[in-house]
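ASSEMBLY PREDICTION REQUEST
Request ID: AP-0331
Submitted by: J.K., bench scientist
Number of chains: two
Total residues: 1002
Priority: normal
Notes: Please return the full assembly, not individual chains.
Input sequences:
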Amino acid sequence: MLWRKAYRDLRAMGLRAVLIVVVIGAGPGTAAGIALAMHDVEATRDDFYSRYALAGLDLRLRRPLPAARLLRRAREAGARRAEARLILDGAALHGGSRTAAEVVGMPVGAPLNRLAVTAGRGLGRGAPRGAAVDADYAARAGLAPGDRLRLRIAGRTIPVRVRGLARSPEYLLATANPDYLVPQRGSLAVVFLPRAGLQGLTGLRGRANDLAADPPGGGDGAAARRLAAGLPTARVTPRSRQYGRRLTEADIHSFTIFAPVMGVVFGIVGLLLIALSLRRLVSSQRRELGALLAIGYPPRAVVGSVMLLAAALAALGAALAIGAAIGVGRLVANEYASAVGFPVTRYPLAFDPLALAAGLAVVATLLAALVPAYRLARLDPIEALRGESVGSFELPGWLQRATAIGPPALTYGLRGLLRRPLLSAATVVSIAGAVGLGAALNILVSSTDSSVDAAFAGQGWTHSADLARPLPDGRATAVARRAGAKRAEPTVKGPAELHAGGTADGTGVQLTGLPRRPALLRLDLTSGAGPAPGRIVLSEQTADGLGVGPGDAVALRTSRESATVRVAGVARTLATEQAYLPRARTARLLGLPGSATSVLVAGDAAAARRLRADPAVARVTSKASALTAERELLDELTGLISVLQAISLGVGALFLVSTLALSYLDRRGEFATLAALGYGRRQIGAAVAGEALTQTLLAAALSIPLGILIASPLSQRIAEAWFEIGLHPEAPSFLLVIVPALALALLAAAHATRRALRLNIAATVRARLIG
Amino acid sequence: MAEPLVSLEGVGKSYGGGAARQRVLDDLSLEIGSGEMVIVHGPSGCGKTTLLNLIGGLDRPDSGRVTACGTELTHASRPELTAYRARSVGFIFQFYNLLPTLTALENVEAGVRVAGVAREESRERGAALLERVGLGDLAGRFPAQLSGGEQQRVAIARALAKQPRLLLADEPTGNLDEETSGGVLELIRELNRETAATFVIVSHDPAIARSGDRVVELSHGRLAEAPATAP
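STATUS: Completed
Returned structure:
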């Protein structure tokens, strides 16, 4: 009998059942969807790096050596896979523009760092001039398979034909100037050619200047160090410090910043609404459950009757939660993976988040029903038969006066909020949570933007010219002067490793040598002093990562030598993993005494053009383009944030609409009474809209502190992944989400009003729905 | 009888469809004069409430014609019916149907303001009527703080406060005990005498039937008018 009752109750509930199922499924589903997206993004990354075999170690040599000798050394070091490559810096000339280029001569069918062809064909043995071009550069330059491209390398111009577009795990986020860790998509033309072809075209037959290998123990192990030790290395890059991978990891890390916060927000508000909706459902059955008690059904049967209905709703809610989790997961993962640049997004269905979504929906629903059902079953049948205590509405005098504003319909609407204060509060908190989350994401974007602007504004350089090969300081300065730069500051940069407290695990940094009084590269010190002999300045993230501050000793190791230095100060930098020492000391540590690897210049566009044309210069990055790159990066982030915001607003709207609709369904008898009294569309609309708008305005007010509260830990996590940002909550950040929320509230109110006006007044008004 | 205030001509009304179709009113014609107190009496399911809903503009007939207070209701648009209810009709329901979040006085005001009466005047009228129905001291109470009889008195005050030409009551004592029911009935009778409004009361209570100027007996959707019983 109870089964039949549960089934018929469910059918009779109609729209109310649908709304409760939506409430049950939406929160846990969205929370789990975000967890699923994180899982999908990580799976996509792992799949990409595994499928296209990112090398464990990359050794760039100062001069080409016989490729066979390099491969022999790799085998002797126990490397499972290795490939010798010829990689030349130069320029790509296309459509009148010149772009810094890295031309990679790699074996066709390379075992490592394989190409993911996104359009056209890959490298071919019979096509020595058939190139595969990095997809980002191709997009920026407007290149397509079949187009022609000229490469300026090793003092000669080589025409090639684009066979296809590709992405490489090694150059996933290729950028002309990686020092700032600001990926400027397409700013570096990465052009892949068959190794034999490039060797032939440049007169370097059989030679290679790059060794990619998978040494045992990984790129940081002893075998990797042994392999590098005997070679004239210009750069040693273990997989863990590979630029693209580091950036991708940082990107994914930044995603993991948002995901748990969003998941928790949606989870909490979802559970809150489930609890209140079920409580409301059980209360509405009070009279009929009282009847069951009165005719002799034991309390456990009454509880069972409610639990059967709750179980049916929970099962439907769980199914919706699973569907929502998959939908949200795919949407977010696809948006994110595309932003990073993975050619294909993988969606391996993870059991845990889906089980979590379904489990959360079922457990929360059953618990939410059990508590009121149990309390109801313990009531005296007579008391239960009196029905829902919805009529027991009282207000203190001041609140009564405060809400008695405007026409009676408006008073009625406003007091509707006070009728079930818990439910109204939960709705307000839910909407505030969703709106606050959206606002927090906006605050992050605008604050990051401001911080980037401020950081660049403090720099005196306009362009950074990376030299094709290290040059003595004087000659480096002369290159800049020759180009017409007003001021020039040669710098020396290279990779190093820092260890603190004698630990074996270090952190990789970009070590930059600064002149005694730097005029162009200005450090924004947050503590301590600038670099001095034996005293190093670290970026905030590096200092935090190592757990050191001014006065602490750190061990510094380059491929040439090791030294112990003290931390002089900590600087706020846009790039993570930066360290600064006096120039002369840095040059000695990097094995480049008296030399510079790049020149920072202050000059105009003409000077930059001349610098680009100078054969001594490999690439020129302007501050403006670095800023643009930062903005592009922010745009990517904004794209993802927009999706997250849309989800926030969507779920917030769902909460608002479902709560309003449930509230309307509970009070349709009252709306029918209003209609019978002669209240028309305008007055009933005012009542419903007044209620919805008040709820939303309260939520909007609450979303302001909530948004700042949510933005604060997010900005700290961004600081860990990227750079420190100062929070600047501004009105537009809030208005961008509050205005759509208010519009949604009005739409929801309009819908409820329309339903109220379509009521069968005669039938509804006679039903004993109200006190 | 002078120009009737309410006129039903050959009215038919059915509910449901197919085999479940039920004819509730069948070719019913009735005229009710201004100021009359008419009791519609009959067993459950005979069509009393349907008749009241048609007169009140809450429903439309399938056939025939309904006119009340000079408004032709059969083909009136929804806004016209709303305006008719707002200006001309006062309703008293069996379950009172007070808005639980409004006080007694606010409930009465809600019935007046909709007729376009200004706030101050509606407040004065509401207070006077609550005083009249014996609830002057309870004007600030919410419905949940009132007994069933008191709630029904508030509902009566709400119905009359707009000074309607037509007052429709559906089993106004159906949910009250005998003693309270008697009080409410007496109040209705007095108010009918005091006001110029026409009262149409649906009830199966013989005590109410005895109170009207005229008793209309309904049986199976058809009219069987009975002679009035003196109060």
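REVIEWER COMMENTS: Chain B has one domain: 6-223.
SIGN-OFF: pending second reviewer
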